[in-house]
User: Fold these one by one.
Assistant:
Number 1:
Amino acid sequence: MPWVLSAAFKVIKSWLPEKAVKKIKFVSKKDLKDWVPKDQALTCWGGEDDYTFSFVPEFSVKDEITISTNNRKVRFDDGTQMSEVGSTISTTGEDGALLSVSPEGLIKFSRDTDNECISNLVLQNISSSPVSFKVKTTSPEKFRVRPGYGCLSSGGKVVVTVCLLPAYRASNVAKDKFLILSTTVESIDLSNEELTNLWKNTSTKKGNQIHLRCAPLNDVAKNGSVVHTVPEVEPTITKLTATIRDMKESQKELYGSVKTLLYVQISLIVLLLAAILYLITSQNNHAPSLVEKSNSP
């Protein structure tokens, strides 16, 4: 390669790790065959491949895209899924629902005397047979639910307390959801082991599922409605922005270094040409004087 590019590559080579330097190979037509098979090398490289590039324009097809929210799924910790239709959540399900929940559709948190964020749900058996229930959440690491499962006789009620653990902020629970499952049982006198085995082997119908979403503590107004606020910027976004800023500054410094190196190379070339011209001119000036001295007696 030209000596100017060779000098520039030496600088670039000093920036690269050793593994990257070993992978760089300079080839010519003579030793190209050692790296590229002859049948895959272009004819201009001395190979046999007569490939010629031809640009083929892309035909854009405008497809109508319909965004539907009817098929969105929320996956719970044990693999079950909760369907979501639009932005509304049904608490009564289909005909034949076994439980009713109060408040409906929304878990509203409030602070107790110990400054903990809690919410109380009242479950009632509205069927004519005993019912077993189980409460699930998309974020089991955030919440403590007591009781998480149990049995209710016909018309019976139970208060389920949902407590947000102190390690998590109440303003960041808007994306969390709860699912209350219910199924009929023969008796309410079931042990914890029997209830655990029951729910392992039971698949509930959609009519026996109650979907609830959480309202952040700061978003619950006095009348119980939810005020939608802009979510806080996550710390990861801040770190990513800082990283991009550092990369831009490093890129500017690298650009300045390359620009300075280019100026130095141009200056050296000019000095080299000036030195060559000076030597040629001085030799031409000394040549006549030497001829005169040789002709003098």
Note: Residues 3-45 form one domain.
Number 2:
Amino acid sequence: MNEWTDASKVGSILGFAVFFIMYIVTIGMIFFDISWTSREFDMEIAKDRQKMTELGMDKKMPELEAELAIRLSGKKEDDLVDDQLMGEAQKIDRSSFGKYM
């Protein structure tokens, strides 16, 4: 078996120390990147809201906020449709509404 010399002990200790330090740095960089990306998204949202205000969409903001809340809650567009109305609309053929087009 190979014997451990002083150089091999120092080399293994330094190797594991560098590995451990780089492991900690990598984890730190992951959290830093997540934080940085979150700040970038917040800045982009603020810019978009400012642009919407400049375009005069601030009057419709309560309506947009309500629709956004519905979408974020996981409801689909189909959940908001009147099923009876859609059922009746599917029964109509093209000849009955074609004269209005």
Note: The chain has one domain: 6-98.
Number 3:
Amino acid sequence: MVSVHPSLVLVNGFDSHVHLYQMIDAIARKGDQDSYPRSGMKHVGGVVNFCDPQHFDRALRFIPLLFHFHIAVRVHPKCVSMLTDDGWDKLECLFACPRVTAVSELGIDYFCVSQAEWPRQWAFVRRVLGVGCRNMVLVLHLRPAQGDPYGHHLHREFRDLLRQYCGRHQHIHIHNFTGDAQELDAWMPFRMCTSGCRA
């Protein structure tokens, strides 16, 4: 048996949440790529998230260069009020790109956003679902208001909306799921639904 030192083993790595333009900007600011750790990992792909409307132009230029990556686009529920008509047009262009495989953090944030903005969040979700996302994974951001830790009402409303637009075979991932066992059971009719939570 041949012994190999662990530092010589190269492991394939897949990064599931890359904010590429933020990383590029950070490297440009520091001017030193050597400050980033070398982990003995060969980066073989990942999911690049383009989430800031002011960078959607950059996203359209980057996508053709990202061969080993899936692409997710989003406007975080906290930022819906900042989306301009021009930003929406660029978002539609991104949705039309065949390399875009996910709509990331689509949803409602009752916790961080004032109640006056809630209708705007719902209108945005309806508009995105109306574009047609059946071939994409919907990564949902459902954050209930204070005093409703499991978000039963929010989850129920969102499921009702998804039934109208998507159907039960839609690929869905609930990001930072905060519900309870009752909520998990209620999502079961959506056969391609998974959830993740913060550790």
Note: Residues 14-29+41-195 form a domain with the TIM Barrel fold (CATH 3.20.20.140).
